[in-house]
């Protein structure tokens, strides 16, 4: 690409950022200047290619009556207006030939006729603002071209001047799906063209500021705030009535204030008063720094308990309405999340207002990712090609200028996954120059040349620990090593929440708490990007026939697409809880630790309860002394006794994000010996015809198969090792070979065969000897079922001895059986109410729980193993008539119950493939393999691997009703 080449390219292929737009400035929600929203129905026409020179549609007299219409903000591909969404993660869906894009470049022409409201001022200027157009736009007003721009998730303004007319005006916008900007926007998400954020006409009165920059620092040593508002293009005063402050723009005032933190989002209502405009401000005083290798705010170390948030709505894509934005933040706050990385682009500007108000630390990330160049050895990477630098600087400026007045934003991020290059350095220099009061982040450059923190995605626990000790492997260059080793450390992405999981969050959290340098991280990611689909429920990559695509890798969130929290979010809430309540040294006592970074525990109320056999026997409130951040105290309820003690920390008052009583943190202790099932031995098996009866059990005499427990028919009870591999079992294609989903199938664990070797009727037991082994392999599990009984109790002890050279862990080890479909009411004592696996069990609270079989299922967008309950002592499955089966464990166990088999679950690609059969399939597991995070991260930690090893476990069954 030579200079002349790019000059001769059409505007949308030229790497230059645009023409005709105004310099960027800050976004604000309210002022007394007039504004007119141009959101609504727009006339729309889709053309298959960008090449058309026909611009007649932009002329005011153009007749668009034959066109269709779309909603703005919106993506036309989600509105039945032609075309379809397409998903790729890393790979560009077009040839990598920057800055050229395909001729097949679906082009949306948009038209909007609007009435200029009466009294719209003549004097001053009027600007037309686009908050987001994907991927580029060329704009005409009343037939006169205003200019063009790229930078999908960034604002662009034009001065409309005399082109605006009283009465009717016609705005024409041409949008191409692909542009040179697409090379800079290779984020892992759906490709969704359209005018997807607001379009607004804004009056700029004479004497109004062109822009302003609020500097509001906090000095934790003396409790003072320092305020200075730089104002460009006008002079004025800043009024902060609550502080009695009235200060000229440009002047500095220092006065006692309450600081802003994510825990205490103290905002002062203020006003910027200039001759032409009064602008409402909300000022938060805080100071961000790196001190002694640690990120601090207001002098204190931060622990980021974060999530990566893409903008997503299952119906409207990246056009996210205000209610949904607030909902996201309320859900985050309710789940103890204190930080958001706006992956991988600046969000809708109003989102940051909400972060200021509700209290979240924000890493604001620039709209920049060139990951697809990794597929071609990073050849031609725009961040390493000076011809793209103006576009990079334009993006940096549009983000920083737009968002610079938000106290919540403490870190700017250059972008995501761009490799390395001088363009990034240029962005960083500009950002530092413009805003030295915030920190810089970028993960993709291991030298950390441009940034203030060492950031990584998906490292193992072991590596995080080494980094925590500042003892990581040094990079080749000693100088770089010294620089980086002195830096604080964050995980910009970890805990890949794809499908069931992520596992191992607790272990990361312990590292963040242990090592000062490890300042937490951001789980990948907030929400599944499953698009609502009439036949499939939620669609993922490939469901619209696109090629290439990356399948369900787009569904890797802590929320399901409809924003229901997944078990991953419930687990994360518990793992990052800001108060630790742990069993204390003496029975019934608890150690309470304040894990907040800034506040005491005064906003919480502590409530205790004691349960025996699932019944509440006593409860009360617990007096916890004032505790500074990091401090602990031992406290004991004013009562004693055996049973299950639970202490809950709940909100003492209503907040902007949850009401009084909302559960923030909890801890439990079991005091005394938990009851164990009475033994079931002594009864004598009796042969009669083709069956053997043993206590309530009736067996097939020839095969030893259990047929009934009392009146309850039981089918197919046998050893089970298979589970429908989770996304984390399957791992990502680029992961090391220890990808169990694949290995398990290679080893044939999905097709185990059961050979009966002996059925022995003894004096007090029925013993069935078997060998369970995969077809095509020479490994096996010698499995002996020993049945005993006493009264109405039927005991089963299963012993398993592996044979051969097992080189893979087992998915699970337990028994399965099927019950009639009516036995679908489940009650259990154990962990609950939600799903748990060995490395995702922090949130499982001990207690007695009841749920229907259908409610036990977790609706992962791509069906997979789910719904296990852990630490179970007993479980009962009953029908409406109260009849059913109870199973108690010799030791705590795991159970699942579903209306389909693991094989059917495995075969399903979408939830709509799961069809309820005429059985309830029950799994009672002695042990299960952990979950890990290998769909894009480390696998299962060794402690949670279920190795094939000799095992023995037992259950006692009894009929109910
Ligand atoms: C990393 C990306 O930054 C993120 O956008 C997303 O794709 C995530 O992974 C996986 O879901 S990049 C990955 C190849 C490490």
Features:
Jelly Rolls; mainly beta; 59 strands; 961 residues; single chain; 12% helix; 13 helices; Immunoglobulin-like; 37% strand; TIM Barrel; 8-stranded parallel beta sheet
Structural class: mainly beta
Mean pLDDT: 96
User: Counting H and I runs of at least 4 residues, what is the number of helices?
Assistant: 13
* Rg over C-alpha atoms, rounded to the nearest angstrom: 31 Å
Bound molecules: 1-methylethyl 1-thio-beta-D-galactopyranoside
| CATH level 1 class label of the largest domain | Mainly Beta
Shape: globular
Largest sheet: 12 strands, antiparallel
User: Which assembly state applies to the chains in this document?
Assistant: single chain
Helix content: 10-25%
The number of distinct β-strands equals 59
CATH-scheme architecture of the largest domain: Distorted Sandwich
Low-confidence stretches: none
Number of domains: 5
Cα distance, first to last residue?
80 Å
Task: Characterise the protein shown here.
It catalyses: Hydrolysis of terminal non-reducing beta-D-galactose residues in beta-D-galactosides. This is Beta-galactosidase. The structure is a single chain. The chain has 961 residues and is mainly beta. It has five domains: 3-204, Galactose-binding domain-like (Jelly Rolls, Sandwich), CATH 2.60.120.260; 211-289, Sandwich (Immunoglobulin-like); 302-574, TIM Barrel; 578-671, Immunoglobulin-like (Sandwich); 686-960, Beta-galactosidase, Chain A, domain 5 (Distorted Sandwich). 12% of the residues lie in helices and 37% in strands. The chain has 13 helices and 59 strands. Strands 48, 49, 50, 51, 52, 53, 54, 55, 56, 57, 58 and 59 form a twelve-stranded antiparallel sheet that branches. An eight-stranded parallel sheet has the order 30-29-28-27-26-33-32-31. The longest helix is centred in the middle third of the chain and has 15 residues, at 389-403. It is globular, with a radius of gyration of 31 Å. The structure holds 1-methylethyl 1-thio-beta-D-galactopyranoside. The site of 1-methylethyl 1-thio-beta-D-galactopyranoside has 13 residues, from loops.
């Amino acid at each position: 690409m030579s200079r002349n080449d790019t000059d001769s390219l059409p505007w949308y292929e030229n790497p230059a950022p645009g023409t005709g737009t105004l310099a960027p400035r800050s976004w604000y929600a309210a002022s007394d200047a007039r504004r007119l929203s141009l959101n609504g129905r727009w006339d729309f026409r889709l053309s298959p290619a960008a090449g058309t020179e026909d611009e007649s549609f932009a002329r005011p007299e153009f007749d668009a009556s034959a066109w269709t219409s779309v909603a703005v903000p919106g993506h036309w591909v989600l509105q039945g207006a032609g075309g379809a969404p397409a998903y790729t993660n890393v790979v560009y869906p077009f040839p990598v030939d920057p800055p050229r894009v395909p001729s097949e470049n679906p082009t949306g022409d948009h038209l909007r006729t609007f009435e200029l409201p009466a009294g719209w001022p003549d004097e001053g200027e009027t600007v037309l603002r686009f908050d987001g157009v994907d991927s580029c736009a060329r704009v005409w007003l009343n037939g006169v071209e205003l200019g063009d721009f790229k930078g999908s998730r960034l604002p662009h303004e034009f001065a409309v001047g005399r082109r605006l007319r009283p009465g009717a005006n016609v705005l024409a916008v041409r949008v191409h799906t692909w542009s040179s900007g697409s090379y800079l926007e290779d984020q892992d998400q759906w490709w969704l063209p359209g005018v997807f954020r607001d379009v607004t006409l804004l009056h700029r009165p004479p004497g109004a500021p062109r822009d302003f920059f609020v500097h509001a620092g906090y000095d934790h040593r003396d409790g003072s705030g320092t305020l200075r508002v730089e104002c460009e293009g006008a002079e004025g005063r800043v009024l902060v009535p609550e502080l009695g402050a009235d200060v000229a723009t440009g002047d500095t005032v220092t006065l006692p204030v309450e600081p802003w933190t994510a825990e205490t989002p103290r905002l002062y209502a203020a006003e910027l008063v200039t001759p032409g405009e009064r602008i409402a401000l909300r000022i938060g005083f805080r100071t961000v720094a790196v001190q002694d290798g640690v990120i601090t705010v207001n002098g204190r170390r931060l622990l980021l308990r974060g999530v990566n948030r893409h903008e997503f709505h299952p119906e409207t894509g990246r056009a996210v309405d205000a209610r949904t934005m607030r909902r996201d933040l309320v859900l985050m706050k309710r789940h103890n999340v204190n930080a958001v990385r706006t992956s991988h682009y600046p969000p809708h500007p109003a989102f940051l207002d909400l972060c200021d108000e509700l209290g979240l630390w924000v890493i604001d990330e620039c709209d920049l990712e060139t990951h697809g160049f990794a597929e071609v050895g990073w050849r031609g990477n725009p961040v390493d090609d000076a011809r793209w630098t103006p576009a990079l600087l334009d993006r940096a400026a549009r983000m920083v200028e737009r968002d610079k007045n938000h106290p919540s934003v403490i870190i700017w991020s250059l972008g995501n996954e761009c490799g390395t290059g001088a363009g990034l350095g240029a962005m960083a220099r500009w950002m530092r120059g413009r805003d030295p009061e915030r920190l810089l982040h970028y993960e993709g450059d291991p030298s950390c040349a441009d940034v203030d923190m060492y950031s990584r995605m998906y490292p193992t626990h072991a590596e995080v620990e080494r980094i925590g000790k500042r003892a990581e492997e040094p990079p080749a260059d000693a100088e770089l090593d010294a620089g980086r080793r002195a830096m604080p450390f964050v995980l910009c992405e970890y805990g890949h929440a794809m499908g069931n999981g992520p596992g191992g969050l607790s272990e990361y959290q312990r590292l963040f708490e242990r090592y000062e340098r490890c300042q937490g991280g951001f789980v990948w990611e907030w929400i599944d990007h499953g698009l609502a689909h009439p036949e499939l429920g939620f669609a993922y990559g490939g469901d619209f026939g696109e090629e290439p695509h990356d399948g369900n890798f787009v569904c890797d969130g802590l929320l399901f697409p409809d924003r229901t929290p997944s078990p991953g979010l419930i687990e994360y809430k518990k793992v990052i809880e800001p108060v630790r309540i742990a069993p204390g040294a003496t029975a019934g006592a608890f150690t309470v630790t304040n894990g907040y970074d800034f506040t005491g525990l005064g906003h919480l109320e502590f409530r205790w309860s004691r349960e025996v056999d699932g019944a509440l026997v006593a409860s009360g409130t617990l007096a916890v002394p004032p505790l500074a951040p990091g401090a602990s105290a031992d406290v004991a309820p004013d009562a004693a006794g055996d049973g299950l003690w639970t202490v809950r920390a709940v909100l003492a008052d209503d907040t902007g994000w949850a009401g009084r009583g909302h559960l923030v943190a909890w801890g439990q202790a079991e005091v005394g010996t938990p009851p164990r099932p009475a033994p079931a031995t002594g009864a004598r098996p009796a042969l009669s015809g083709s069956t053997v009866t043993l206590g309530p059990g009736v067996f097939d005499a020839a095969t030893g198969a259990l047929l009934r427990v009392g009146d309850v028919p039981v089918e197919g009870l046998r050893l089970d090792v298979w589970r429908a591999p989770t996304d984390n079992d399957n791992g990502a294609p680029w992961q090391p070979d220890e990808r169990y989903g694949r290995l398990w199938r290679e080893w044939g664990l999905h097709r185990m065969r059961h050979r009966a070797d002996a059925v022995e009727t003894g004096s007090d037991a029925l013993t069935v000897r078997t060998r369970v082994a995969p077809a095509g392999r020479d490994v096996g599990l010698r499995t002996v079922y020993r049945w005993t009984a006493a009264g109405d109790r039927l005991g089963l002890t299963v012993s398993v001895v592996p044979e051969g050279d097992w080189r893979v862990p087992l998915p699970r080890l337990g028994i399965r059986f099927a019950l009639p479909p009516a036995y679908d009411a489940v009650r259990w004592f154990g962990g609950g109410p939600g799903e748990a696996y060995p490395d995702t069990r922090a949130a499982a609270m001990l207690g007695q729980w009841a749920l229907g079989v259908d409610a036990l299922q977790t609706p992962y967008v791509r069906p997979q193993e789910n719904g296990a309950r852990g630490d179970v002592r007993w479980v009962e499955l009953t029908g409406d008539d109260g009849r059913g089966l109870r199973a108690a464990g010799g030791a705590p166990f795991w159970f699942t119950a579903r209306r389909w088999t693991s094989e059917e679950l495995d075969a399903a690609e979408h939830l709509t493939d799961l069809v309820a059969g005429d059985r309830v399939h029950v799994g009672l597991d002695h042990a299960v393999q952990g979950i890990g995070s290998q769909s894009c991260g480390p696998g299962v930690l060794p402690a949670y691997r279920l190795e094939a090893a000799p095992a023995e476990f037992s259950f006692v069954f009894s009929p109910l009703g």
